[in-house]
Write a structure and sequence with these properties.
- This protein is α/β, with parallel strands linked by helices.
- It has 24 helices and 18 strands.
- It has a 5-stranded mixed β-sheet with strand order 16-15-14-17-18, with helices on both faces. It has a 4-stranded parallel β-sheet with strand order 3-2-1-6, with helices on both faces.
- A hairpin with a 3-residue loop joins strand 9 and strand 10.
- Helix 12 packs across helix 13.
- The longest helix is centred in the last third of the chain and has 47 residues.
- It is elongated.
């Protein structure tokens, strides 16, 4: 047996012990590299590398890797080098494995190097996880490329590895090159089955949240890599990334949160904190604080308050959050795109299989409570409202906030009317019966409960000449004359300059105003107003009193209207009618909240259209004036 030849090809590392029992000495260094017997030299590999896409996409990285391969060629045995040079059957590029893996993992290598370079100087040393590592080319490359002062170790995971430290453990992939070579950064292997959910939990608990050192409790930064993970392995890797986007905490006070964002939702860990100087019963979360209130003889309960609102996310509770960008756009989508909470919830379920149940109700609660918090800041009542914004039923919350919310929204509409330049002495009034809600016939105990369960017949709207909504009132039961009279009195009280009302049933409304004129000061003011029928319904009024008093074709009424579009209220109602499919399922107070916000969006779009028309008119006047001056100059 030629021992020198066996040692030369890598099958024998040391001389056998002598018969006298002396320990063998390491062989003398060879004058030629151990891998010289292979037909693949660094020069031939460099020539083959130029044929791969990675040579054009990452030329600098390829140059560094070729230097590394040259060092490996000098130090690796022929057996190890032959394993690295093996050409896999059926691969797209018939090249050695080392080049094939470089071609596939180059983007990952570049991303890991960038991430390590951006780590702060005070950060603990990072740990790199190589999922489905196989032979370990990715970790081998990174071990030579990354700085040892920033990276602690590499963890290679694969089912084909033998268990490290177990004598009788066998595996289909040899790991001698991992443990018997002097790598710049430490590497070790783990025999794990990534297809099992329990394995992901163990990785999250023991690796992602483990302290960086015995004297440093901070978890080490972890970068998990997975190159060409197929089928279930790819799904498990994506699940590991989604469930541990930052780090899975190992201590108490952490909740897995589902956050709805745009255009997709994600799962993250919501961490709490406690202030040593504050009450021990207070737990601080993202945007709110929870107080535990003990009760004598009963189980204690938790009370939530808005505290230091987060600029990006709004949380209803620790597990349920939403992006504020989604919330800010929702009322525009609700009115302009005819969106609905049910359709949005269905879409999110189709996109994400792990979304929570009752998603429609979660979206409704999140949007309503967040927009009330924003309106409370505008009204200057945020300190009091933030204490109750996240507690109790939503209907009770809106009902309690209505005393300041409705005046705030009316002040916004009044300012919009003033900025539009519309006439403040005339408004059009009309009802929209398509915005009705479902009724309940089970409450028959008292008149109060019967009224609470009454059927909503829509809304009465007061509209200006450019289509701005000035005021609104929910109709209960039917569009009765008494409710229209009440709405007319409300509008006249809020707009003292009002002198004329345009309505499809102006004759009966005027008759009731004359009948009730002596009951109050406001009733007397209503009796003195002008009531005119709109053009669309004027053909159906055949009474003598209507023909002589309320028709828009009369000369005295034409002088009052002065070109006012009497059908503007019908046009505005046509834009709100498609929302009826949503209002049918809204609760009473929530429906009024949605109507107020949609009216605000409607007015903003109308004001924008008015501004565009004015700019076009100004440009047209300037062009006409310029053309007129040019003609005068020519003449």
């Amino acid at each position: 047996m030629d021992l020198a030849h066996l040692r030369h090809i890598g099958l024998l590392d040391y001389e056998p012990k002598l018969a006298t029992g002396e320990a063998c000495q390491p062989p003398e260094p060879l004058d030629v590299p151990g891998a010289q017997g292979s037909r693949w030299s660094p020069q031939s590999l460099a020539e083959t590398l130029q044929k791969l896409p990675v040579a054009k996409l990452f030329p600098e990285l390829c140059a560094e890797v070729m230097e590394i391969i040259g060092r490996w060629y000098q130090h690796f045995s022929l057996r190890l080098w032959s394993r690295m040079m093996k050409v896999t059957k059926g691969s797209a590029h018939q090249v050695p494995c080392v080049l094939k893996e470089l071609n596939e993992s180059a983007p990952v290598i570049a991303r890991v190097r960038k991430w390590v370079a951006e780590l702060p100087a005070s950060s603990p040393k990072a740990v790199i996880l190589d999922l489905g590592a196989g032979f370990g080319f990715l970790s081998m490359f990174l071990s030579e490329l990354l700085p040892p002062e920033k990276v602690k170790e590499f963890c290679l995971m694969d089912m084909s590895y033998p268990n490290s430290g177990v004598d009788n453990s066998n595996g289909t992939t040899s790991v001698e090159h991992i443990y018997k070579q002097p790598w710049r950064i430490h590497m070790y292997t783990l025999k794990v089955d990534l297809k099992k959910k329990a394995t992901l939990n163990q990785i999250a608990q023991r690796l992602l949240s483990a302290p960086s050192q015995s004297n440093d409790p901070r978890p080490a930064p972890v970068f998990a890599c997975g190159v060409h993970l197929c089928n279930t392995l790819g799904i498990r890797a994506a699940q590991l990334f989604n469930e541990n986007s930052e780090a899975k905490p190992g201590a108490r006070g952490s909740v897995q949160a589902h956050v709805i964002a745009e255009p997709d939702s994600f799962v993250t860990w919501h961490l709490s904190r406690a202030c040593a100087r504050a009450c021990r019963r207070a737990t601080y979360w993202c945007g709110f604080v929870t107080f535990f209130q003990p009760q004598i003889g009963k189980r204690g309960r938790k009370h939530k308050q808005v505290d230091c609102p987060n600029a990006k996310y709004f949380f209803l509770s620790a597990p349920n959050g939403i992006a504020r960008s989604w919330l800010r756009r929702w009322r525009y989508r609700l009115y302009l795109q005819r969106a609905s909470f049910q359709a949005e919830a269905t879409l999110l379920r189709l996109l994400q299989a792990h979304v929570r149940l009752r998603l429609r109700e979660q979206l409704r609660q999140l949007w309503a409570r967040e927009i009330l918090c924003r309106r409370a800041v505008e009204a200057g009542v945020n300190e009091d409202f933030h204490k109750q914004a996240l507690n109790g039923p939503l209907e009770a919350l809106i009902a309690g906030a209505w005393k300041w919310y409705e005046p705030l929204m009316f002040s916004r509409r009044l300012a919009q009317l003033d900025s539009s330049g519309d006439r403040a002495d005339i408004l059009a009034i009309d009802g929209n019966a398509k915005l009705h809600r479902s009724s309940c016939n089970t409450h028959k105990e008292s008149p109060k409960e019967a009224h609470a369960a009454a059927r909503s017949a829509g809304y009465l709207l007061a509209v200006s000449e450019s289509g701005l909504i000035f005021d609104m009132l929910e109709i209960i039961g039917a569009e009765s004359l008494s409710q229209r009279y009440h709405f007319a009195a409300q509008v006249a009280h809020r707009l003292p300059r009002l002198q004329t009302m345009v309505h499809d049933d102006a004759c009966h409304l005027k008759s009731m105003c004359l009948k009730e004129r002596r009951t109050s000061v406001m009733a007397g003011k209503l009796a003195d107003l002008n009531f005119i029928i709109d053009d669309f319904h004027s053909g159906g009024h055949c009474g003598e009193w209507c023909k002589t008093t309320c028709l828009p074709s009369l000369q005295q009424n034409k002088d009052i209207l002065k070109g006012f579009p009497t059908e503007i209220a019908e046009s505005v109602n046509a834009q709100f009618s498609p929302l009826g499919h949503c209002f049918h399922h809204y609760s009473p107070w929530f429906a009024q909240l949605v109507m107020q916000e949609c009216a605000d969006v409607h007015n903003m779009t109308r004001l924008q259209a008015l501004g565009d028309k004015r700019r076009v008119a100004d440009k047209k006047r300037k062009r006409q004036a310029l053309a007129h001056s040019d003609r005068q100059a020519d003449s």
